[in-house]
């Protein structure tokens, strides 16, 4: 990216303000070659979120402390002064001040670096949830009007999830334990949601919401979801929405931020989001993860600063919606391999988000990872399982690019805020590297 350190640039601006007040110039920091960054993670290394760069930054900043330059203006005693305040004619001082103002403005424009980040990954890996978090963390969150646009999406998520559970039960011949719930199950299956004219129109009636809530309390439903989660598709947020269905089904319902983060709608095409992280102006592109959407990525590849590749750890036992015989984790590995070894990304930092750690932790106790990856021998230990999956991804890195892995829970704002602080450091580090400072 060829940018200089944000802190260094701030010092330069401070020096120019001092020049304006004192009428003398201050030397810019001398270039410094800091120690090389730590090597990329290897299969055996821990995949704990983030690698702190505080020590590196402190050493770099300490080594570039400014040294004052002797004044060009003669002192009354005929000697050069160091840092002394000199009186100069008003016209000369104004010209110098104006020159500094212009230079500060030019430097500000030049240093306001545009960083292009691509969010890549297979479908339902959490890419769009990351974009929503950026809006919450780095912008002003969602307005009431924007929240209202998720009403029909949330309603459909709740209803479709209920239909999927009941349909699977019918398929394998299971009935609700409570007799009255069998009637409610049939009622849900036979119900058709209306098509809203706009996204802010409610489509889930209070009556159907009551039926779903009652059905959710039947002991057979959690049992089906626990023991048969690998056998049929159900969105990860279904348990959350089932638990909130009475609130969601009330008249005048307005989604909250948690509802929005958990809502699921297929991304079609390419969605761009812009926000600032300090002096970095971020252009983040969310692209559709389904196979039919991937051909649209290609024109986004030029001048990419970083790629955030999302994979859902919890998908090790699931299959694609588009191809029922293809394991989702294997599909994600194939996609990662094609991205990281592409000629487009030879100078691009690859940030790997190993997402849905919350779902992954729960699932490991019910669905053994070794059932789908026989070479794994770590049992239900989440750290061993995550390291194994990281190793699988690193095996695909034939280009030997630097990969920065993070364990993430995209629906947790505090987790994503912490992770993106580390992502900012990664971008800064690579900027220093590209500029020759590192």
UniProtKB/TrEMBL annotation:
Superkingdom in the source lineage: Eukaryota
Keyword GTP-binding: yes
Ranges annotated as biased composition (Pro residues): 32-42
Basic and acidic residues composition bias: residue spans: 1-22
GO molecular function terms noted in the UniProt entry: G protein-coupled receptor binding; G-protein beta/gamma-subunit complex binding; GTP binding; GTPase activity; metal ion binding
Co-factor(s): Mg(2+)
A cellular component term, taken from the record's GO annotations: cytoplasm
InterPro entries for the chain: Fungi_Gprotein_alpha, Gprotein_alpha_su, GproteinA_insert, P-loop_NTPase
Binding site for GTP: 124-129, 236-237, 261-267, 286-290, 355-358, 410
BP GO annotations: adenylate cyclase-activating G protein-coupled receptor signaling pathway; developmental process; glucose mediated signaling pathway
Ranges for region Disordered: 1-52, 65-97
Pfam families: G-alpha
Keywords linked to the UniProt accession: GTP-binding, Hydrolase, Lipoprotein, Magnesium, Metal-binding, Myristate, Nucleotide-binding, Palmitate, Transducer
Residues involved in Mg(2+) binding: 128, 267
Known role: Guanine nucleotide-binding proteins (G proteins) are involved as modulators or transducers in various transmembrane signaling systems. Involved in the mating pathway.
Record text on subunit structure and interactions: G proteins are composed of 3 units; alpha, beta and gamma. The alpha chain contains the guanine nucleotide binding site.
Protein name in UniProt: Guanine nucleotide-binding protein subunit alpha
UniProt source species: Psilocybe cf. subviscida
């Amino acid at each position: 990216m060829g940018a200089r350190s944000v802190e260094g640039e701030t010092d330069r601006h401070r020096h120019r303000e001092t020049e304006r007040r004192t009428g003398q110039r201050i030397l810019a920091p001398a270039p410094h070659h800091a120690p090389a960054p730590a090597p990329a993670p290897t299969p055996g290394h821990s995949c704990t979120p983030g690698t702190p760069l505080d020590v590196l930054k402190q050493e770099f900043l300490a080594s570039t402390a400014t040294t004052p330059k002797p004044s060009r203006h003669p002192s009354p005693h005929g000697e050069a002064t160091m840092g002394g305040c000199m009186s100069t004619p008003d016209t000369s001082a104004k010209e110098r001040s104006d020159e500094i103002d212009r230079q500060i403005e030019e430097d500000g424009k030049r240093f306001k670096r545009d960083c292009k980040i691509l969010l890549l990954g297979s479908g339902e890996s959490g890419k769009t949830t990351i974009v929503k978090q950026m809006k919450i963390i780095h912008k002003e969150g969602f307005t009431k009007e924007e929240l209202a646009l998720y009403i029909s999406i949330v309603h459909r998520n709740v209803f479709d999830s209920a239909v999927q559970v009941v349909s699977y039960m019918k398929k394998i011949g299971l009935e609700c334990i409570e007799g009255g719930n069998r009637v409610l199950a049939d009622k849900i299956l036979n119900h058709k949601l209306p098509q809203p004219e706009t996204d802010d129109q409610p489509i889930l009636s209070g009556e159907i919401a009551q039926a779903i809530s009652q059905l959710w309390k039947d002991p057979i439903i959690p049992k089906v979801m626990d023991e048969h989660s690998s056998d049929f598709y159900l969105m990860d947020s279904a348990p959350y929405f089932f638990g909130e269905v009475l609130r969601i089904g009330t008249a005048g319902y307005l989604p909250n931020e948690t509802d929005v983060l958990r809502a699921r709608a297929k991304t079609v095409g390419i969605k761009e989001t812009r926000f600032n992280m300090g002096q970095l102006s971020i252009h983040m592109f969310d692209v559709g993860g389904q196979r039919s959407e991937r051909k649209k990525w290609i024109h986004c590849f030029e001048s990419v600063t970083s790629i955030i590749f999302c994979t859902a750890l919890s998908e090790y036992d699931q299959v694609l919606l588009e191809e029922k015989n293809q394991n989702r984790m294997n599909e994600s590995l194939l996609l990662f391999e094609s991205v990281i070894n592409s000629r487009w990304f030879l100078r691009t930092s690859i940030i790997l988000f190993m997402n849905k750690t919350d779902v992954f932790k729960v699932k490991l106790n019910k669905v053994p990872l070794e059932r789908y990856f026989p070479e794994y021998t770590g049992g239900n230990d989440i750290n061993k399982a995550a390291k194994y999956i990281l190793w699988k991804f690193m095996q695909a890195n034939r280009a030997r690019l630097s990969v920065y892995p993070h364990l993430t829970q995209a629906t947790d704002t505090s987790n994503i805020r912490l992770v993106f602080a580390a992502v900012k450091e990664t971008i800064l580090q690579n900027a220093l590297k590209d500029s020759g400072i590192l």
